[in-house]
User: What shape does this take?
Amino acid sequence: MPEPTWRPVPHQHQGPHGETAADAHIYSPQKHNGVFKAAGLRTFMGAPYCPPDRHEIRATGAKIAFLGAPWDQGTIVRTGTSSGPEGVREASTQYFPYMFEYDVDILSFFKVVDCGDIPMVPGNNARSQDYMCDYVHECLAGGARVILVGGDHSVPIPGARALSRHLAETKPEAAMGYLHIDCHLDAAVDWGGIEITNASGPPEALKLPNCAARNMAHMGSRNGLNPKDWMDFWIDNDIPIIAMSEVVEKGIVPCTERIMERAWEGSEAVYVSWDTDSLDCSCMPGTSCPECYGITAREAIQLARTMGRYGADVLEIAELSPIFDASQMSMKLACQMIYHYLGSRAATLRDKGQTP
Amino acid sequence: MNPAKAFTHLFSPLGDEDADNYRSPGQISFLRAPFVKIEEEALRAAGRPYAFLGVPYDEGNVGKPGSEDGARDFRLSSLDYFPYWFEFNVDLNEAAIDCGDVSMPRVNPDLAHRKIYEAVRTVLKAGLTPILCGGDRSISIPAARALSDHLGESAKMGYMHLGAHLDMSDSWAGERNLTACALARITELPNLSAENTAHIGARNSFNPKDHFDLAKERGLKFVPMFEVLERGIDTVLTEQTERVWSNTDGQYLSFNFNVMDSSAAPGVTATEPGGLDSREIMRVASHIAKAGGPTVYDITELCPIYDISNATSRMAVAVILRILAEIAAINGDQVADDLRRPGWNH
Assistant: This one.
């Protein structure tokens, strides 16, 4: 077994003057000009770029792969989410990968790699989704868990398919969980005859052979863009929804614990699909369907930290729309949702004496 | 539930020949409602409980302009919603008509206010509940007067306002019908007493001393924002809806969405920090619905050019629809349990 080749990109965090210490990226700059965000190649978290190929990923030893899914032609609302991955990458240049709350360097802990954006076929949802599925599957097959950033909320359709396929190949008998955190119930069995829009993630997940209703849940639903057949889907399949009113009443942490426990009950892999319109529009204007009465920024971080205690094989953040953002607050929040998830995950594993 | 209605609008659009993008309504109206002229007979014939009226008037404003576009964006934002509300299992599809905008003259405030008055009177006379969307806060002056006259001198009227400012200027630079004078004029209505008047959310320093002096003189008991924070929105609303709804024959409900914190409602003319968050305004909506809802609604001071990502108009629409939906649910006007989308097989 050759030595893993993963190492941070020198110019990303160490500056052009060549900091030599291996952990220089977690400290304030010493040698270079102090503009810590001056990037060469812009990658998520300053992670090294790695081609989305299972052998290359395995060779680096990466345990987290960032993938962009710049696709917004599956949307039934406004477009603009194809810029989502770039929005998150840009926001991530304003952060250090060291998180004091967990005393962990998430970049090195997970040997994060950025596998770039998935290629898309304009005008062709089916082919684009096949690409998304193949790329996510390739990262999973390379031994990495995936941070998948959309893209509209049709992204979980191929995303969950990829996890399902990977699980079937590695553990044929195992079950997977699927969580949907969203302002919208997203349960159109079809929308205008189309089954693969951004309103159909959960019904498509339920069609997967190893994904059953008992490991599915929904959290954050509210307000009036939820037609009746969507509600009927959840009721008829006996899948619990934790509507926003319940989150407000009971608190985000116990609600998150409930859905995470349901997803992991007897299953061996979990897909988490987190639509950013689950957040309140005051902290998340940069989404395609901003909605009031949502999860606040504080709660989003608590949600991410709680989720980190349980883990997920694919964490997908959807519907980011940088052109509608204000002062980059949405992109920075989305970025920190991922960072806190990873920070909490790393601390959880470290405290148990485990590696990712 | 009305068996004669078609219910396809509750569901995701069907495919093939019936394929439809729900955001392309053909015409832009409140909740995709049909347009009906402001004429008593036509309004009566429509047979629906609510009438939406745009009031694109901002010549009464003393701050920044822009609220004349409020109704336009309110309509647009209403198209982002379904008439179906899962929380209440209610269908609002045939709840409203849209009367279009009240035609507004330029540079003639007296005439503008008279037209607003006449429009509201006509709608009330036809037996519908008007939902006015401004426009600046001064539109409440003729609209509240219309309700007052509609009820008649012997009846009692209730009035509730949510906003950051008291608007109790007896006159402002010599003018008596500007936004800052709204509550001063409304508290002069003959059938509205101080004990049936509520004002919730006042804060910060766009409330000059004469506002308080006049409020005191008229015995107005308002609930400032600090009191809301201390006692909680539920306690305050329980008490204040009681003031406005008990023993009154008609109620006027007025939202200036600067009652919200500036983070929750940037698209208003006078943003104020320290206000309600969107969860609290949803509680407010619920209390109002439980009180039975008002006889006239108004929404003023929406200012789309300062909005971020349409968030404020959407919030305003969500608040109004939530009230209508909960009222419908309380009235038992729910959708049948066994109703499913055509071809449903899940």
